[in-house]
């Protein structure tokens, strides 16, 4: 069967790339087995406009955030299912240094920061105080699940891993079993196909716990060392760890113990851990996405390296990539163009 594009991976990157191509009338086939420890399924879905200990504005955030809001609104109308919500993040300062950094950014006019007087949550340890960050939350599980069902109904999903021995790319045509396309897009994150591995992409493992906190009625994302994210029905996501070196991609007891100790220092209420989740995400050395046409092959593209900001970067990266693939723009933004790792 003939397609316009074959997409490898149906995490945030693959979902948004497929969505943009479908909106342009392209015939797409997505290959994704649904790995249990895929990064997107373990992520919290937080969109945070600031980064690091200095609360510096994230890369191109104004443009990235507006794109994300527009794209998620379009997807919600089409699917239809609510997946995106703007929400303030209650930022608890863990040190004097971070308190001073927050206040410095606030006084410098950062539009995404707001002051807070007093104490909002009596059960949260916040001796140095807290402030507000204007952010958002994406229900990633709902988004990927609903979109996956849409692909299944359209007979546009192969629920399997990509066998490289069965894949033939000759610069003009892509052949995978009985399926052929003019091009292939790798949105496979840290689980890259060996033949098409990108330089500059570094796998990093993250783990989180799902907890129940009886008596806690926090409706905001609370961020201190890690983030506490309400999931509904009395459950919360808390995490995540960051491991550059790891033996496997499964949850570990060590990470569970570490996160539980951190959560005990954040909230005074008793809680129960009901699940431990893990995922390996694709990060980059310069913390920019890796997007564009692979110079080693004539019709191979990538949308990868979204790191911890996939919820906000995926709509932006996918939209720019699809415009480039469809000839609407002459090039990819050089800061995220994958060719920076080949020059």
UniProtKB/TrEMBL annotation:
UniProt-listed InterPro entries: FAD-dep_OxRdtase (IPR006076), FAD/NAD-bd_sf (IPR036188)
Alphabetical keyword list: Oxidoreductase
Q: Name one GO molecular function term.
A: oxidoreductase activity
Report the GO terms under cellular component: cytoplasm
Q: Provide the species name.
A: Chitinophaga caeni
- Highest taxon listed in the record's lineage: Bacteria
Return the protein name. Answer: FAD dependent oxidoreductase domain-containing protein
Domain FAD dependent oxidoreductase as annotated: residue spans? 4-318
Pfam (any one): DAO
């Amino acid at each position: 069967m003939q397609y316009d594009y074959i997409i490898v991976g149906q995490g945030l990157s693959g979902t948004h790339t497929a969505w943009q191509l479908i909106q342009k009338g392209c015939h797409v086939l997505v290959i994704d087995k649904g790995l249990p420890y895929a990064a997107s399924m373990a992520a919290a879905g937080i969109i945070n406009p600031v980064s690091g200990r200095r609360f510096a504005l994230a890369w191109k955030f104004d443009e990235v955030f507006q794109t994300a809001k527009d794209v998620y609104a379009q997807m919600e109308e089409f699917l239809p299912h609510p997946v995106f919500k703007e929400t303030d993040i209650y930022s608890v300062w863990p040190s004097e240094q971070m308190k001073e950094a927050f206040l410095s950014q606030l006084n410098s006019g950062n539009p995404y920061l707001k002051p807070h007087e007093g104490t909002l949550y009596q059960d949260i340890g916040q001796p140095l105080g807290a402030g507000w960050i204007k952010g958002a939350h994406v229900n990633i599980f709902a988004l990927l699940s609903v979109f996956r069902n849409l692909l299944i109904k359209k007979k546009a999903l192969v629920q399997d891993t990509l066998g490289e021995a069965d894949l033939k790319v000759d610069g003009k045509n892509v052949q995978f079993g009985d399926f052929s396309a003019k091009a292939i897009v790798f949105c496979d994150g840290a689980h890259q196909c060996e033949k098409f591995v990108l330089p500059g992409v570094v796998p990093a493992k993250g783990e989180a716990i799902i907890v129940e906190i009886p008596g806690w009625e926090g409706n905001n994302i609370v961020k201190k060392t890690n983030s506490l994210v309400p999931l509904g029905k009395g459950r919360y996501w808390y995490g995540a760890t960051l491991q550059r070196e790891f033996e496997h991609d499964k949850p570990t007891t060590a990470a569970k113990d570490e996160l539980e100790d951190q959560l005990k220092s954040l909230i005074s209420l008793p809680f129960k851990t009901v699940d431990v989740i893990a995922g390996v995400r694709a990060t980059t050395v310069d913390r920019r996405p890796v997007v564009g046409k692979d110079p080693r092959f004539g019709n191979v593209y990538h949308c990868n390296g979204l790191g911890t900001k996939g919820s906000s970067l995926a709509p932006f990266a996918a939209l720019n990539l699809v415009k480039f693939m469809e000839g609407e723009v002459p090039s990819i933004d050089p800061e995220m163009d994958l060719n920076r790792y080949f020059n």
